[in-house]
Design brief:
By secondary structure, the protein is α+β, with helices and mostly antiparallel strands. It is built from seven helices and four strands. The protein has two domains: 58 residues; 124 residues, H-NOX domain, CATH 3.90.1520.10. The chain binds protoporphyrin IX containing FE (HEM).
Amino acid sequence: MHGILFKGLKDFVVETYDRATWRQLQEAAGVGGRRYVPVSAYPDEELVALVEVAVDHTGIEQSELLRTFGRYVVPTLVDMYGIFIDDAWTGLDLIENVEGAIHHVLRNSDSLKYEPPEISATRVDTDIVLVTYGSRRGLCAVALGLLEGIGDYYDEPLEVFEHRCRHEGASSCELVAVGDGTNPLQANRLVHDHLEAT
Ligand code: HEM
């Protein structure tokens, strides 16, 4: 996994708790003293181990912790990869275009070994984007947080929920971001109808 996510996790822990807590988590995860820089990649297992000890340490449920982290890390991602983002986009436009404009480009870049997940996004209605995520990493909670973080970043109230989840037996996770012009219940029905029809 890319260093930017590790660096994001460290900043998140230091800002929410403090530096000593980060050091403790690193020790407990068996990666004491390791420095994470945003231009390198590190084993996925290290992130998993850090998250596991963070769950033990804070008592926060894993999915909630991952979601909060995803929400927190958006400004860092946008700062670093803003070059791929069209200034005219709204938050929902960005979500709709993440795969084509960012993840796909990073995956195919040869400067660093990037492995962002393949996601697909559909504009089900003006105010509704359906995102399908099926990564082997199973980080749909992070993805939900990223969607919320994009809403925060654009100061666009977005209701974000998971329509179906791989952790509950679905073939992939279906995440929905809804703008404030549409009621989430109505959005859920439109997403359901859309999926039935395709
Ligand atoms: C602000 C726009 C975004 C940028 C710049 C961005 C960029 C990235 C980068 C650099 C990584 C690390 C890849 C690696 O480790 O090699 C990543 C991972 C990830 N991205 Fe994005 N991303 C964005 C938005 C999104 C959105 C909207 C979603 C889904 C709703 C998403 C889902 C994920 C997930 C879940 C991961 C963790 C790795 C995995 O699950 O396989 N990203 N992204």
